[in-house]
Amino acid sequence: ALVRKADQEVVDMLPRSVEIVLGDVGDPCTLKAAVENCNKIIYCATARSTITGDLFRVDYQGVYNVTKAFQDFNNKLAQLRAGKSSKSKLLLAKFKSADSLNGWEVRQGTYFQDVVAFKYDAGMDAKFELSETGDAVFSGYVFTRGGYVELSKKLSLPLGCTLDRYEGLVLSVGGNGRSYVLILEAGPSADRSQSKLYFARFSTKVGFCRVRVPFSSFRPVKPDDPPMDPFLVHTMTIRFEPRRQVFP
Predict the structure, then answer these.
(1) Could you give the CA distance from residue 14 to residue 17 in angstroms, rounded to a whole number?
(2) Domain check: are 183 and 225 in the same one?
(3) Most exposed residue of 66, 130, 150, 227, measured as fewest CB within 10 angstroms of its CB?
């Protein structure tokens, strides 16, 4: 039981079998001990007033803080099991600082190399940066005919780990309601000229969302190429193509 104060009155209200942990749902640093070795959470905290700031702190931010602490704990366990179970997750990227953006390459291009596309080259821009709130943001615009912008990174996997032991990828992103193309490059890392490209499309919703992209959903960019072998994947790219957007 997570309590802000372990007063005798509070202790008497709880069963003796309950372990009491001091903390505050509004302070993420105090929640690690509360979620450790737990497999479920029952959230009973509620704001004591209808003041907007109080409601936000407890009923919104509090739920977020507890959920994130619980997720971080389970992710830590999964990382410890990585390599021992086919269901364990492998963390490929996590953005915590400006340095974590290193190695990601922002590119822009067009599908049609003609006079019209060349004339509107200034109609594309893309950047990847850490915002003031600590979020890694891939942003920009595409007005060029047949244009696209993309974010790419060569994967650096731990020694002995390969993607063929996993079923697919899980992306935790702050979406904008648009669809994107996820491209995986597979082949001998020493000879990129032998690599093949495979793509899968995924949609996002406005706000934070988790997107699951199984390896079985990837298709070769060139139809004659063989099916993708996750063992050979060495580069991941996220591409935005406004020409393929479908609006309701």
Answers:
(1) 8
(2) yes
(3) 227
Express each pLDDT in 97-141 by its tens digit. 888 898 999 988 887 765 454 555 567 888 999 888 888 999 888
Beta-bridge partners for 152: 105, 237
What is the residue range of 175's domain?
Answer: 98-240
Q: What are the φ/ψ torsions at residue 14 (nearest 5 degrees)?
A: -105, 150
Per the domain annotation, does 111 fall within a domain?
Answer: yes
Let me know if residue 33 belongs to a domain: yes
Range scoring the smallest mean pLDDT among 59-63, 82-86, 189-193 = 82-86
pLDDT per position as a tens digit, 38-59: 989 999 998 888 888 889 999 9
Q: How many domains does the chain have?
A: 2
Instruction: Order the strands of the 196-203 sheet from edge to edge.
Output: 104-110, 147-154, 233-240, 179-186, 196-203, 219-220
Among the candidates 81, 108, 134, a domain finishes at 81
Residues 62 and 170 reside in one and the same domain: no
DSSP class of 37 = T
The answer for residues whose C-beta is within 8 angstroms of residue 71's C-beta and 6 or more apart is none
Q: What is the Cα–Cα distance from 138 to 135, expressed in whole angstroms?
A: 10
pLDDT at 248 over 50: no
d(CA 233, CA 108): 22
Assign residue 151 the CATH number of its domain. Answer: 2.60.120.430
**Tokens describing residue 176:** 């904008």
Q: Give me 111's structure tokens.
A: 């599908």
